[in-house]
Amino acid sequence: MDHTLMLIGFSILIFIVTWLAGMPPFRHQHRKRIGVDYSTGEALACGIFLGAALLHMLPEANEAFHDLGYHYPFAFVGAGVVFLLLLWLEHLGTHLADHHHANSPAYAWLSTAVLSIHSVLAGAALGSTDHLSTAIIIMVAVLAHKWAASFALAVKLVQSGKSLQSNLVAFGLFAFAFPLGIVAGVITADASASTTAQLLEPSFNAFAAGTFLYLGTLHGLTRATLINRCCNRRDFNFVIIGFVLMAVVASVH
């Protein structure tokens, strides 16, 4: 399959899934039952995100920086900075929810911004991936996570009290973030031979690694799979399965 066609197909699929998952809260204006069990998919996604970050993106970014003559661990610094930034933003959102109101417009828009950053960097990671097997498994993880994240964000937006038009605009920005990230990843992968341009791809990989590490560990804070459901053997087994999948893929590259 042509790499470009594959990425276009992935973009369209993610875009459709995002809107399908987000439409029920908008259409029904948040019915009483908002809880949907995505635990298995989220657990599998956590393992895949961890494996993708630790076994693919960080090593590739670090090797690329070394090949360009940079022996300082810039890849790990970049991943750490993004990880801490996302953690700080999520704590800020929790602070807004606790001290103002969980359904405040500020909290809803902050959630939109944080999830959009996740999406852009995840899309960039997919767009810059040369290996089909890696791309497909990352896509599975993104789909499993995106469905739940889209539904949860739509619920937050509906609860914010803003107009339907305003909420749809915010959700539309979130929906376009992943395809935008894929485009950014493709552009950096196809960048010219200049040293500055060559630095873009490992930088994106490092930032995406930090994002995936965060998604696989602390995203959701106390609701995170590795915190809230670490004693649930079924869910934890799916985390392990996801990680092993990425380890197997790494062994055949």
From TrEMBL:
<feature type="transmembrane region" description="Helical">
    <location>
        <begin position="132"/>
        <end position="155"/>
    </location>
</feature>
<dbReference type="GO" id="GO:0016020">
    <property type="term" value="C:membrane"/>
</dbReference>
<dbReference type="GO" id="GO:0005385">
    <property type="term" value="F:zinc ion transmembrane transporter activity"/>
</dbReference>
<feature type="transmembrane region" description="Helical">
    <location>
        <begin position="6"/>
        <end position="26"/>
    </location>
</feature>
<feature type="transmembrane region" description="Helical">
    <location>
        <begin position="70"/>
        <end position="89"/>
    </location>
</feature>
<dbReference type="InterPro" id="IPR003689">
    <property type="entry name" value="ZIP"/>
</dbReference>
<feature type="transmembrane region" description="Helical">
    <location>
        <begin position="109"/>
        <end position="126"/>
    </location>
</feature>
<feature type="transmembrane region" description="Helical">
    <location>
        <begin position="167"/>
        <end position="187"/>
    </location>
</feature>
<protein>
    <submittedName>
        <fullName>Zinc transporter ZupT</fullName>
    </submittedName>
</protein>
<feature type="transmembrane region" description="Helical">
    <location>
        <begin position="207"/>
        <end position="224"/>
    </location>
</feature>
<dbReference type="Pfam" id="PF02535">
    <property type="entry name" value="Zip"/>
</dbReference>
<keyword id="KW-0812">Transmembrane</keyword>
<keyword id="KW-1133">Transmembrane helix</keyword>
<feature type="transmembrane region" description="Helical">
    <location>
        <begin position="236"/>
        <end position="252"/>
    </location>
</feature>
<feature type="transmembrane region" description="Helical">
    <location>
        <begin position="38"/>
        <end position="58"/>
    </location>
</feature>
<keyword id="KW-0472">Membrane</keyword>
